[in-house]
Specification:
By secondary structure, the chain is an alpha/beta fold. The chain is 41% helix and 13% strand. It is built from seven helices and seven strands. The strands form two sheets. It has a five-stranded mixed β-sheet. The longest helix is centred in the first third of the chain and has 17 residues. The chain is elongated.
């Protein structure tokens, strides 16, 4: 980006926005121009919301999803089925599956997937916490909903081996997803079908 193209303050915003996932320089410039034309009250509201995001969002002590209280809204909901846990890699996957509106159990966020090439082993994920929940909470079924990638498959296999000796039913979502696809970017109908037609892991 040429130094003469934008005033310094505007250029700083464009550079900051272009670091966001999926936002290139052109999109960042459009967003920055939109913000520049927005009323000051909207700018202040956005700035406050961003600060609160860092200050108030924490990790749910039970499922490790995002929360603004000790428990996330799903774990705190007495209407959810406590005997069923759906395991996902990250909170974005959980939110995508929750938008489907079909699943009524609880979740467990692993915090990633096994990746020996990147040095990510079971101790780097929330595997122990999952096993402890299954033992302590009378869980009847654990549904594994990890992306259909090599790392996702390795993690699914590993979790199945760890969970089955606990006497819990272990299933995995069916895949209408392409190999290497990402749950959080999959349409709701495909996710609903994947949940509805889950198979034994």
């Amino acid at each position: 980006m040429s130094k003469s193209a934008y005033p310094t303050a505007l250029r700083r915003v464009i550079i900051a926005l272009s670091k966001w996932p999926g936002v290139g320089e052109k999109t960042a410039a459009r967003l920055a121009m939109f913000l520049l034309r927005a009323p000051q009250s909207e700018m202040l509201e956005l700035a406050q919301a961003l600060m609160e995001l860092k200050e108030k969002i924490q990790i749910c002590r039970r499922c490790f999803a995002f929360a603004d209280e000790e428990l996330c809204p799903i774990c705190a909901d007495p209407q959810r089925r406590p005997g069923q846990i759906l395991v996902v890699a990250d909170p974005g996957d959980m939110l995508a599956l929750e938008r489907v509106g079909w699943y009524q159990g609880l979740y467990h966020v692993l915090g990633g997937v096994l990746s020996p090439m990147e040095g990510v082993g079971p101790d780097d994920l929330r595997v122990k916490e999952l096993l402890d929940r299954v033992k302590a909470d009378g869980v009847q079924e654990v549904i594994l909903a990890l992306n259909p990638s090599l790392e996702g498959e390795v993690t699914t296999t590993y979790l199945g081996q760890e969970l089955k000796p606990l006497g819990v039913k272990v299933s995995r979502i069916a895949y209408g997803l392409p190999m290497g696809g990402d749950i959080k970017y999959t349409d709701q109908q495909t996710l609903k079908e994947a949940l509805s037609h889950r198979v034994e892991a």
